[in-house]
Amino acid sequence: MKIAISVSEKEKAKEASSSYFKALVEAGAKPAELRLVTCADTAGIRAEDFDGILFAGGEDVDPTFYGEARKHDNVHANPARDQFEFSLLDRARRHRKPVLGICRGAQMVNVKFGGTLYQDIKFDWPPSDEEAAAVEHKQPGDRADLTHNVTVTDPASQLAQVLQGSFPVNSLHHQGIKRLGHGLKVCAHSEDGLVEAVEAADDDSYLLAVQWHPEELTGYPEHKRLLEQFVQECRVSASQDETTKTFGKAGV
Known about the structure:
Layout: E1 3-6, H1 9-12, H2 19-26, E2 34-37, E3 52-55, H3 79-94, E4 99-102, H4 104-112, E5 117-118, H5 121-124, H6 130-133, E6 148-152, E7 166-169, E8 176-177, E9 184-190, E10 195-200, E11 207-210, H7 221-251
Parallel strand pairs: 1-2, 1-3, 3-4, 4-11
Antiparallel strand pairs: 5-8, 6-7, 6-9, 9-10, 10-11
């Protein structure tokens, strides 16, 4: 099995100490099965050479990819990373590879499917009442702090297989999903109504993307289960590929 973890250059430099890398090891992957990749690796990376892709957090998606100009000074984009990940996602879907998006990864998936984003939640998405306005989406504390609740709103979703009802999450983003992309469905919301998780509307292959950071929460069984689900999907993908290769050789 091989899993690609698409990250920023800063995160890749951490190598095995990356929180994404360590979290997938805790979820059942072996270190040798994981590879951190960035847009600098474009020439040598193909999604079909892996059994799953994790799209990690980081820079904002360039607003031009969803038809908008940059509205706020705190929007920091990396178009080269966007293009790299759009291509990876395309090929992963074409080859039916499992995909997990985290934070920026969820936003990137939504944009690739034709959706749009709130460029800054604080300015572009004012909640309707004081209670909702109190929800903190860009928490000031430790990355592993639990800061607000998320509720699974689709009991038939892949997310609902490992998480049910309402549960606390960390929150480290200033952007969010605005218009949902075509071919996606919402499976969780925060208590103020913001979209917190989406997945593929069809059952062709595993694609789940969450707005919080489960890689920082592996000490909580429910969040660890989400990562374990992804690793298991990747193992199934690897097994299916091996079976295909075996039968292909037998038929020659």
